[in-house]
Amino acid sequence: MSTSLDKTPCTIVTGFLGAGKTTLIRHLLENPGGRRLAVIVNEFGDIGMDAEILRGCGVEACAEADIVELANGCICCTVADDFVPTLDALLAREPRPDHILIETSGLALPKPLVQAFHWPAIKGRVTVDGVVAVVDGAALAEGRVAHDEAALAAQRAADPSLDHDDPVEEVFEDQVACADLIVLTKADLLDEAGLARARAALGAALPRPIGVLEAQSGRISPALLLGLGLATEAEIEARRTHHDNEEDHDHEDFASVVLPLPEVTDATALAQRVAAACAVPGVLRAKGFAAVAGKPMRLLVQAVGQRVGHHFDRAWAPGEARSGQLVVLGLHGFDAAAVAEALAAP
């Protein structure tokens, strides 16, 4: 038996804020194809909202203990301190996972993470099955990588050189540069012309030919994403990114705030208040959950720009406090007080 057959495959799911990574991973958990899956979720902020959403999937093949949260910073900045020990602990479990999904934060650069698979502590036991970049098709159709115009003010400036310097653009370009596959989400929100614009914009950003798959509501066949066997770590050095010559990087351009969400009586009214909060200049996105009076299910709320979605994702557990929270992520210096005021408005 070859060494590669002994290695546990890992799929890295990267993508910009609000592109649909968590939705895609939840779909994979619900359709494991006989695999025992484990998930490492990298969060940016104080509350592990994505991990909390995934833990509500209710899939027998992926217990709550199989979903591990890294909330101590960007995974590409803390590989040695956080990621490697976490991966080591998962591999020591019995039964051992058949496949590990790694969801990076929207700010993470995939290349340092892939390079970590050469570390002596893990290189003989894991391999990068593939890097999947999740891209917001609706945003690309509008000429943007996200639905928040404040985050892309530099892109609309008169001097085109500002495009390259915009940290949001650089993150996006680095993510697709490292991808083995692109998942173009929210295709159901686009007509034929919009889809053509999104594909053209994506094609212009890709440094080499990469397969592009369209997804609606995060639904795509797991057979297309898992079991690729690409061993991406073997060729990652050849994938050029903006940060190749940097010893380190930071994310001082971004900040987050966590706000409480008291029980509400009207889910639609809450969504409207979240939309108003996201209209504050500099806010990129929001994600959280709340209790609705008289409802046994928890309400999940996700917002990118002015587009807000909400649905009941799971029942409140017996004895669980029916208290909600909203994580708001934006450019450094955004007015958190204004966000809180908009969220609290009647």
Number of helices: 11
Structural class comes to alpha/beta
Low-confidence stretches are 45-49, 149-166
Helix content: 25-40%
* Net shape: globular
Radius of gyration: 20 Å
Commentary on this structure:
This protein has helices spanning about 5, 20-30, 50-55, 80-90, 110-115, 135-140, 160-165, 165-175, 190-205, 265-280, 335-345, and strands at about 10-15, 35-40, 65-70, 100-105, 125-135, 180-185, 210-215, 255-260, 285-290, 295-305, 305-315, 325-330. The protein is an alpha/beta fold and about 350 residues long. The strands form two sheets. It has a seven-stranded parallel beta sheet, with helices on both faces. It has a five-stranded antiparallel beta sheet with strand order 8-12-9-10-11, sandwiched between helices. Strand 6 (about 180-185), helix 9 (about 190-205) and strand 7 (about 210-215) form a beta-alpha-beta unit.
Give the structure's gist in a few sentences.
The protein is an alpha/beta fold. The protein contains 11 helices and 12 strands.
Note the topology.
Elements: H1 3-6, E1 8-15, H2 21-30, E2 37-42, H3 49-55, E3 67-70, H4 79-91, E4 99-103, H5 110-115, E5 126-136, H6 137-141, H7 161-165, H8 167-177, E6 181-185, H9 192-205, E7 211-214, E8 254-261, H10 267-278, E9 283-291, E10 297-304, E11 307-315, E12 324-331, H11 336-344
Parallel strand pairs: 1-4, 1-5, 2-3, 2-4, 5-6, 6-7
Antiparallel strand pairs: 8-12, 9-10, 9-12, 10-11
Characteristic key phrases:
346 residues; alpha/beta; 5-stranded antiparallel beta sheet; 12 strands; 28% helix; globular
